[in-house]
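Issue: ligand-bound run for flavin mononucleotide - logging full I/O for the record.

Environment: standard queue, default settings, no custom constraints.

Inputs:
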Amino acid sequence: MAEQNDAVMEFLLTRRSPPAKTLSLPAPSRTELVPILTAGLRVPDHGKLEPWRLIVLERAGLDRLADLTQERARSLGYDDEKTEKGRGQFTRSPLCVAVVETRRSIEKVHALEQTYSAGAVCLSLVNAALASGWGASWITGWPAHDAELAASALGLGPDERVAGFIHIGTPSAAPPERPRPDLGVSVTWAG
Ligand SMILES: Cc1cc2nc3c(=O)[nH]c(=O)nc-3n(C[C@H](O)[C@H](O)[C@H](O)COP(=O)(O)O)c2cc1C
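Outputs:
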């Protein structure tokens, strides 16, 4: 058995994401982001297809995405509240990494397994950012699921979709406690 890593277990047992709304500057620099992105992409990946890619959105990219989100909301006739909810996540964000699922040939590895791997990238990025001392939050909202916005604003292709927007910055407050799953409910010991 490999040696026990108490620090990592302590981290995993206590990790919490601050709400994205509580994240502000400073955000990690490009240099600080490199190990976070490297750890984020170190995930299980059946067939080594790398069915994902990352788009790092800094201030200019976030402002552009916010504007295009607002335009898209207007063209869809969304009300002010829904428009602002979509746009606001980008105007408020100190830095955001868009995790893009890029589906490869589904004959080799089922499409769903590629989706799971992209989800693993999202969590791995959040954890790497938290472990580096930043606040991080995995958000989607309607902009993540709007294929036309993803194509025009982020350049996504027909086999791509947004798995998550990972917002990273400095939390202004400690993350609120959140009830965690009860093992008695969530786990079956099959013997
Ligand atoms: C796929 C996915 C999408 C999510 N989208 C949102 C969202 O749009 N808005 C939101 O407030 N939380 C969203 N969440 C929830 C937060 O990322 C997170 O689960 C919650 O704040 C607690 O995180 P923690 O377990 O890291 O503390 C989403 C979670 C997942 C897995």
